[in-house]
Write the structure tokens for this entry.
Amino acid sequence: MNVYTFLILSFVVAVYSIETIADLLNIKNLSNNIPLEFEEYYDREKYIKSQKYLKTTTKFSIVSSTFFLAIQIIFIISGGFNYLNTTVVSFGFGPILTGLTFVGIFFFASEILKVPFSIYSVFVIEKKFGFNRTNTKTFFTDLLKSWIVTAIIDSVIFIAILWFFISVRQYAWLYAFLVIVIFELFITFISPVIIMPLFNKYTPLENGELKNSIEKYAKKENFKMKGLLKMDGSKRSTKSNAFFTGIGKFRRIVLFDTLIQKHSVDELTSILAHEMGHFKLGHILKHMIFSFVLTLTMLFVFSFFIDKIWFYDAFLMDTQPIYAGIIFFSFLYEPVSLITSIVLSYFSRKHEYEADAYAAKTYKKPEAMINALKKLSVDNLSNLYPHKFKVFLEYSHPPVLERIKAINKIEL
Ligand SMILES: [Zn+2]
């Protein structure tokens, strides 16, 4: 252990503390008053339930993040990485396969540790609040499928980084970046056809009032799309949502069946007008470029640490294998990713206001948009009074009351 171990662990603890403080402030900020805008949507009992839901999920997330923080610290200071590495090296594989085994065991062990927590979250908390529709069979097949998909995608990215840093060295960060970009675009492209159907059933929206309304709006806005799909979200949860998938020609709109059940045609069209707004205003593209810039920066910074012995010493390693350096770097990067996620959330909230305004101005039914927002937050038991600090740290959407206020101010 050296001064860098101490420094890196302090980073990790600092990030944990900031997030926990935000959570605690958030709970303190709860208010028993139902806001005027929501009086017709909430009865007192359901409103109290929404507050209990927030308290329960927050407490649970603090318990689990404390547990994982403790495990990480114990693993690092007890020389766990060095032990894992010695074991993996003894298998006598080549450098890439050794690296893959090293990270594979590390990530799989963390995934296994997470399982009891997700079981509790889904089958105790979500069930208690009436959200859960998942049975154990769906839960475990989901888990298995997501492990397989993640293992394949992450292995490709990991091998690319490792291979360039071992074999090419000079400008490895740039080559690795190019491969990652191409691969990620490819995944985004094929995901709606290959990955998403592994988890849900997507059926074309049946002919009728809703389909007509959406198509009419899309045509008026000159918005091209490949399909309008309904997803069986009700298989897992009563919570509802709508989203876009795919890029270019494969662009599809997906509506949860649970969303369709609870909203009127005008409300649903407003929700989709908002989603199309994100495209029309270039938000999706901006977000993508921003995340690619982040990846590039990360790889570039990583190339400075890769051959520093102190960096490996900090994790109590006897040798300096690059594959281990990739994992160590993720610890070092935690404070940076906290900052980038603050920036990302800020722009995301700004884009939400813009997409709301776009929907209100083009579909010209702001009341429907507001009703949809109200119903969504009641159905998902969203927190109506999140603390400012929590919003600042991680809210990708502005608090619903502020969105409603902003929509009301829009001049059509
Ligand atoms: Zn949005």
Notes: Residues 44-77 form the longest helix (34 residues). The longest strand covers residues 227-231. The mean pLDDT is 94.
